[in-house]
Amino acid sequence: MRKYKNNSPIFMAALQLIILIVIFLLVMIFLLKAFSGAISTSKESSRLQNSVDICRNAAEIFAATDSIEDIHNMLDAEHLSEDEAIYYNNDWQICSADKASYILKINTATQDSAAGKLISANIALSNVDDEIIYELNTEKYVGEADE
C-alpha cells in the first residue's frame, strides 16, 4: 500500500490559498458591517441636522415677527395647511399635508404684565407618527411701546 504525503507543495499551496480566502472573507464581512453602520449613522445625523436648522430658523423668524401667520409667510407656507403646522417632505421642502414626512408645530403662550407681554414659543419638528425629532423653546418680550 502506498502512503500519500500531506506536505506536498501542491497541498501546501492549496491550504495557504484557502486560509487566505477565509481571512479575506472575514475582513470583508467586518468592513461591510462597519460601512453599513456608518451609512445608517450618517442618515440619522443628516435628519437631525436638518431638523435643528428648521427649528432654529423658525425660532429666528419668531423673534423677528409678530404672529404665526408671519412665520408661515416668511417660510412660503401660508396656504398649505388649515392648522398652524408646516409640513415638509423627505427632501426637506415645504409641501402639503398629504405629502408630508415631517411636521413643524409652533405653539405660543402669552403672559401679560403692566409693562408689556412675554411671548413663549415651543417649536417642535416631528415625523408623521408624532415622534419628536427636535424641539426647542424660546421667548421674546414685547413692551407696550413695541405693540
How would you describe the overall organization of this protein?
This protein has a five-stranded antiparallel beta sheet with strand order 2-1-3-4-5, covered by helices on one side. The chain has helices spanning 9-64, 68-74; strands spanning 86-88, 94-95, 102-112, 116-127, 132-143. The mean pLDDT is 85. It contains two helices and five strands; from the N terminus they run ααβββββ. The protein is α+β, with helices and mostly antiparallel strands. 43% of the residues lie in helices and 27% in strands.
Structure at a glance:
This protein has helices at 9-64, 68-74, and strands spanning 86-88, 94-95, 102-112, 116-127, 132-143. It is an alpha+beta fold.
Order of helices and strands: HHEEEEE
Percent of residues in beta strands: 25-35%
Strand order of the largest sheet: 2-1-3-4-5
Please compute the radius of gyration using only Cα atoms: 30 Å
Strand tally is 5
Largest sheet: number of strands, sense, barrel closure: 5 strands, antiparallel
How many helices? Answer: 2
Shape field? rod-shaped
Low-confidence blocks of residues: none
| Class by SSE composition | alpha+beta
Quickly list its features.
147 residues, alpha+beta, 43% helix
